Amino acid sequence: MRIGTLGNGMMAEALATHWVKAGHEVMIGGRDPGRAAEVARRVGGTAGSLTEAASYGDVVLLAVPAEVAVEIAQLVPAGTTLIDCTNALNHSDFTLAQPATAEEISRAVPGVHVVKAFNLAADAVWRNPPAGLGVPICADDGLEVVAQLVRDVGCEPIPAGGLVRAKLLEATAALAIGIWVSGGDVRAMFPPSEAAFGTVPPG
């Protein structure tokens, strides 16, 4: 699979490293050609401009600051699957700073298959994810493609509903990050599914 990244920061590098190892061709796109080339060299991919990376393949990772995400997403041609891993956070109180980014992107580029994924953890987690880590995915189209890329990172895809639910995933990130920053353990919030919801009847 051919994958372009819009952004050449730590998030793009962490995910692209796994995808190259899984046999995918990756182009690192950035405004700074030198920085893009440096990251591409480390991950084993190629480098290009944002425009070149946006049209490089069938899948594009949007890994830029949330405040410019909608603008940069408009470089992506129709028919492409776009993975949005951004979180528009107000870092003073860890609330959402704007409406759901993924839905705003989808409205701005109606021909693109926008998928929300990889937004619940920082780049350090994706560099060496714990075995069995679940990655929620919100998508109307492109779910199976992104699910395979989640597996290529060494994680388990968790279908979380259509793109309309991306706002819940983004709010979950805001809640979780706020708890982590205050020293809490988010994992302690969630009991085993049987305890939380009981046994689901067959059929």
UniProtKB/TrEMBL annotation:
GO MF annotation, one: oxidoreductase activity
All copies of domain Pyrroline-5-carboxylate reductase catalytic N-terminal, residue ranges: 2-87
Entry-linked Pfam families: F420_oxidored
Record key words, sorted: Oxidoreductase
Annotated InterPro entries: NAD(P)-bd_dom_sf, P5C_Rdtase_cat_N, STEAP_metalloreductase
Domain of life per record: Bacteria
Key word Oxidoreductase present: yes
Keyword Protein biosynthesis assigned: no
Gene3D superfamilies the UniProt entry points to: NAD(P)-binding Rossmann-like Domain
Stated name of the protein: Pyrroline-5-carboxylate reductase catalytic N-terminal domain-containing protein
